[in-house]
């Protein structure tokens, strides 16, 4: 018989991990704000913007209309349409969710729900069809939230992203049963597995709908596990992924880096354009790494180190390294949304069907110009690092990249400089002299 005793040191080690997880969740959340904020209020602010979204969820329905859905698991997928009012720029900075300080929410100063209605499967299909017809490019943007998110957290965060990216795509929120508790990490992870089949069914429907021309996916944290598993499952069943699945954006993915390698392989070579947002100072992923046997998490790798650099290049995966980008998030786990210059540009471009290596536009140029403030806040031009499988993002941007780095650092750099022509993974390092 094996040793059934657990040493005191082991107990302390487990307790430390749980405590760290709890602290992480408490820091990421906001305990002082009101909860159950989804009860619709009158639309009394003409200057506020509106974001209409379709919700697909495996959460259980709540008897409280201000909550709508709980953190428990529903027996079958449910659907809803929600319209969120977002206050004008004079009272809200890009990247911020303006949570109400008291209820009812005030649309002039707060995020506020002005319409919420549960839908049947058929009425959800009708809502989506009508919305896609009104979309300029007939595209959809699917958002999958991360760990420790209540239903209202997911709704308001996605509304903020949809607004701040200025996307023309139809917003679809996929929300899975998270209890919104720092101590429910295991439950939340199993809830993503519980949701895999439902997500694949949604993906299959989007693939079949002839009105939908492009599908983009944005996932955060633990939501990346669900997104990747749904895509992998679909690829295995169909023998590949549809061409209309254009872009998949993985923000701070809480995914085992070795497992990710196998997931990508299972999807085949004709997978969507993947863009990976990483940050090596992500404190939440450091805790997750300890929980998962000290295996690196995908969202905190150094993309310039072997074997990651070679693996990313061979799979045509673009990496945006946000390690030196400062944000108001103490865990450095939500930079994709709290650093608005980055998500505004990348999200809008990709939701519009363009990738970071599209030679029709100088997208690398736009990234650097759009993030000048971010780089300055970080203290150097290294505030944003682009690691792409082609030199300095794209051909149209290579010459101008060197000049812009020079402008940021106060030095003059010619269009034929090494920074402009021979930097392969980073805007400020690994360049041939």
Reading off the top of the CATH hierarchy, the class is best stated as Alpha Beta
Q: Identify the strand order in the major beta sheet.
A: 3-2-1-5-4-6-7-8-9-10
Question: How many helical elements?
Answer: 14
Spans of at least 5 consecutive residues with low confidence: 18-30, 354-433
Indicate the radius of gyration in whole angstroms.
22 Å
Number of beta strands:
10
How many domains would you count in the coordinates?
1
- Could you describe the largest sheet, including whether it forms a barrel? 10 strands, mixed
Helix and strand content put the structural class at alpha/beta
CATH architecture assignment: 3-Layer(aba) Sandwich
The H/E string reads: HEEEHEHEHEHEHEHHEHHHHEHH
* Average pLDDT for all residues: 78
| CATH topology tier name | Rossmann fold
Distance between the termini: 64 Å
Sheet-strand content, in percent, reads 15-25%
CATH superfamily label: Alpha/Beta hydrolase fold, catalytic domain
Summarize the structure in words.
With 433 residues, the chain is of the alpha/beta class. The chain has one domain (10-35, 44-83, 113-355): Rossmann fold. 38% of the residues lie in helices and 18% in strands. The chain has 14 helices and ten strands. The protein has helices at residues 8-28, 121-134, 151-164, 185-208, 223-238, 257-267, 283-291, 308-314, 335-338, 340-351, 363-370, 372-378, 395-409, 418-421; strands at 49-61, 69-86, 112-119, 139-144, 170-175, 214-220, 245-251, 273-278, 318-321, 385-387. The chain has a ten-stranded mixed β-sheet, sandwiched between helices. Helix 3 links the parallel strand 4 (139-144) and strand 5 (170-175). It is globular and about 55 Å long. It starts with 7 loop residues before the first helix and ends in a 12-residue tail after the last helix. Mean pLDDT is 78; it is low at 18-30 and 354-433.
């Amino acid at each position: 018989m094996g040793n059934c005793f657990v040493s005191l040191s082991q107990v302390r080690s487990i307790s430390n991990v749980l405590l760290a997880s709890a602290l992480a969740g408490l820091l990421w959340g906001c305990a002082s704000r009101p909860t159950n904020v989804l009860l619709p209020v009158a639309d009394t602010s003409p200057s506020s913007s509106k974001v209409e979204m379709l919700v697909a969820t495996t959460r259980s329905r709540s008897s409280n209309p201000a909550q709508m859905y709980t953190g428990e698991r529903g027996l079958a997928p449910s659907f809803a349409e929600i319209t969120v009012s977002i206050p004008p720029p004079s009272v809200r900075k890009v990247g911020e969710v303006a949570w109400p300080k008291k209820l009812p929410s005030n649309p002039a100063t707060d995020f506020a729900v002005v319409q919420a209605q549960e839908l049947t499967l058929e009425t959800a299909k009708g809502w989506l069809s009508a919305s896609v017809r009104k979309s300029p490019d007939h595209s959809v943007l699917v958002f999958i939230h991360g760990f420790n998110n209540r239903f209202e957290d997911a709704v308001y965060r996605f509304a903020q992203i949809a607004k701040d990216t200025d996307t023309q795509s139809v917003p679809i929120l996929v929300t899975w049963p998270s209890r919104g508790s720092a101590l429910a990490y295991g439950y939340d992870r199993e809830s993503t597995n519980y949701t895999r089949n439902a997500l694949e069914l949604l993906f299959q429907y989007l693939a079949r709908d002839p009105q939908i021309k492009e599908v983009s996916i944005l996932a955060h944290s633990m939501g990346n596990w669900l997104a990747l598993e749904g895509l992998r499952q679909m690829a295995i069943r169909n023998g590949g992924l549809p061409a209309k699945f254009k872009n998949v954006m993985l923000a701070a993915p809480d995914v085992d880096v070795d497992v990710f390698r196998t997931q990508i392989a299972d999807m085949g070579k004709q997978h969507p354009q993947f863009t990976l947002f990483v940050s090596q100072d992500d404190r939440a992923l450091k805790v997750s790494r300890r929980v998962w046997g000290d295996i690196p998490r995908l969202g905190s790798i150094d993309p310039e180190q072997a074997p990651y650099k070679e693996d990313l290049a061979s799979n045509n995966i673009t990496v945006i390294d946000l390690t030196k980008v400062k944000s108001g998030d103490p865990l450095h786990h939500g930079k994709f949304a709290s650093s608005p210059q980055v998500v505004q540009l990348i999200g809008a471009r990709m939701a519009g069907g363009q990738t970071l290596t599209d030679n029709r536009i100088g997208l690398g140029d736009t990234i650097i110009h759009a993030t000048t403030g971010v780089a300055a806040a970080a203290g150097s031009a290294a505030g944003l690092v682009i690691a792409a499988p082609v030199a300095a993002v794209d051909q149209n941007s290579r010459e101008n990249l060197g000049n812009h780095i020079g402008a940021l650092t106060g030095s003059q750099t010619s269009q034929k400089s090494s920074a402009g022509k021979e930097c392969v993974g980073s805007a400020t390092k690994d360049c041939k002299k």
